[in-house]
Design brief:
mainly alpha; flat
């Protein structure tokens, strides 16, 4: 007999990272978007936000070592 496990994930906001910017066009599912050579627009924005977080982390570490 299989056991059933109930998992409850509590969503907690992480205020140490940039959540990104949501545009109204992100919700438009019926637009005639052209296929991009460099991947999807949303994926590139997510990667850009991750780079921004990494840069902020580096700046914070530099500030701590100087002080």
């Amino acid at each position: 007999m299989q056991e059933t496990y109930y998992r409850h994930n509590i969503m907690q906001t992480d205020h140490t990272t940039f959540g990104g910017v949501i545009y109204p066009s992100d919700f438009n599912t019926e637009s005639n978007k052209k296929t991009r050579v460099n991947g999807s627009l949303i994926a590139s924005r997510i990667a850009q936000d991750a780079r921004f977080d990494a840069e902020c982390r580096k700046n914070r570490e530099k500030r701590i070592t100087i002080a």
